[in-house]
Design goal:
Structural class: alpha/beta
Low-confidence stretches: 1-10, 16-34, 251-257
Number of strands: 8
Shape: globular
Order of helices and strands: HEHEEHEHEHEHEEHHHH
Strand content: 5-15%
Radius of gyration: 21 Å
Number of helices: 10
CATH superfamily of the largest domain: Glycogen Phosphorylase B
Distance between the termini: 35 Å
Mean pLDDT: 79
Strand order of the largest sheet: 5-4-3-6-7-8
Largest sheet: 6 strands, parallel
Length: 257
Amino acid sequence: MPNIKVLDVVSAIHKRVREQAESFQTPAVLEDWSNDLAKLHSACNGAYSARNTLTVPPLFDYCATERPAHEPRKTLEIGYVGNCGWWPNLAGLRWFLGEVFPNVQGKVRLHAFGQHSERAAPDHPCITKHGVTDRIAGVWGRCDILICPEFVGGGVGVKFAEAVYNRMPVLARTYAARGVALGEDPAILLLDEPREWVEFLLSPMARAFGRGRVSERVAKTFAIETHKDALQKFVSNGATSARSGRSQAGLGRWTRH
């Protein structure tokens, strides 16, 4: 898996706010994915409101990579990024290899990146196995389209989010884009049936799709700058509530250690 630079402050904020909530009975929760918010409210019997709940997608703070220009390729180059030691990633890659790839081989070359991907992908003249890479820019430069075939598992679609952040054309199953309302973008295509994937990848539209870029507006959905003010306000409100809770409990001023 490439060294994805997701801002560590997000998980740190999550830990600090959760500790404050537990210590001072101050309901303040940082959620990672917007479609989990309804589940949170339901599980807590509505105890958490919009006032003390914040939802954010995966966030990135590095400069998005510009894909280098290249000569037209004989085959459509598609990329997959994922730690195939994690079963949902492996299931998604196997779905693609079993249901889609046999019908497009010879027209499409697959580049497999990430831990254990060299074992998950078979030896094939139209598959290049790269394994772990520390330079995410190298992924975008080798591929026309990034695929996200995941359809099971929990957590967030970090690979999908990072590709969009870098304005990379993405072909994904609907599940991979769960929880984020991006709106329509000509460089993001969500298809669920193997037949739809095959027809698209073999069509002339796939070549044009691979030359496109996700709009800057949509890409900024995953930029830390877009959410910075909301994050700062949320943490400030959580700290204020925590101090108020300590004061009311007669615990005195909170100090960091």
